[in-house]
Amino acid sequence: MASDTQIRTYIVGPIQTNCYVVVSKGHAIVIDPGASGAALAKELEGLQVDAIIATHGHGDHVGGVRALADATGAPFWIAEPDAERATHSGSPGGLGIAYDDDAPMADRFLEEGDVVTVGDASFEVIGAPGHTEGGIVLLGEGVAFVGDTIFKGAVGRTDFKGGDAAVLARTLRKLKGIIPPETVLLPGHDAQTTMAAELRSNPYLQ
Ligand SMILES: [Zn+2]
Questions:
Q1: Distance from the CA of 120 to the center of ligand 1, in angstroms?
Q2: Residue 49 forms beta bridges with which residues?
């Protein structure tokens, strides 16, 4: 990891979403602010928030986007297939849980191969559909933000609207070929792990 780069984790919302903030050279990007956007903005006072990024459009990952964007002026980026979902994910019903707020329409659609930079750090966007149509992984600096695609010992559910087990299986095969084993995986929920540990013991990666 670039020496000036730091990753902070905030656990937010009713189903304990991991919100990650990458800080480098006074700049920050926020990944999956699922709730508590105003409180996150307060935590990040003094930093220039360059972008708010969602790994996918579920309410528990985007519920805090609007308040955080309003407070910081940062743009909101997500892959196009999930952008529409993010704008109504705050409505109760979708997943049976009420989230903070709908996300605003995206300011930019992230695509496979895009590179997101913050200060000295950079991350490549990898398309990772399966849990939703527009899931992405951000890979760089020795870590991968994997959203709800891979968890420690498990993978994301595919029984929600837009989920597809066969598509997820294809994504997992692709990620096995792209993510180096020593990479620390930072999932959208629960504990971090490494690609090596998941290659060894995650039944979905065998
Ligand atoms: Zn999800």
A1: 29
A2: 28
The domain in which residue 41 lies consists of 5-205
Q: Name the maximum alpha-carbon separation found in the chain.
A: 45
Looking at residue 153, which CATH number applies to its domain? Answer: 3.60.15.10
CA of 50 to the centre of ligand 1 (A): 24
**Cβ neighbours of residue 166 closer than 8 Å, sequence gap 6 or more:** none
**Ligand 1 center to residue 42 CA distance, Å?**
25
What are the residue ranges of helices labelled H in the chain? Answer: 37-43, 59-62, 65-72, 80-86, 165-178, 195-201
Integer Cα distance of 107 and 129 in angstroms: 21
What's the CA-to-centroid distance between 154 and ligand 1, angstroms? 13
- 203 with 150: CB under 8 angstroms? no
> How many structural domains does the chain have?
1
pTM beyond 0.90: the answer is yes
pLDDT in tens, 13-69: 989 999 999 999 999 999 999 999 999 999 999 999 999 999 999 999 999 999 999
Q: Which residues contact 45 (CB under 8 A, 6 or more apart)?
A: none
Query: Ligand 1 centroid to 191 CA: how many Å?
Result: 16
Q: Which residues is 140 bridged to in the sheet? A: 143
How far apart are the CA of 163 and the centre of ligand 1, in A?
9
Give 131 Cα–ligand 1 centroid separation in angstroms. 7
Taking residue 200's Cβ as centre, other Cβ atoms within 10 Å add up to 11
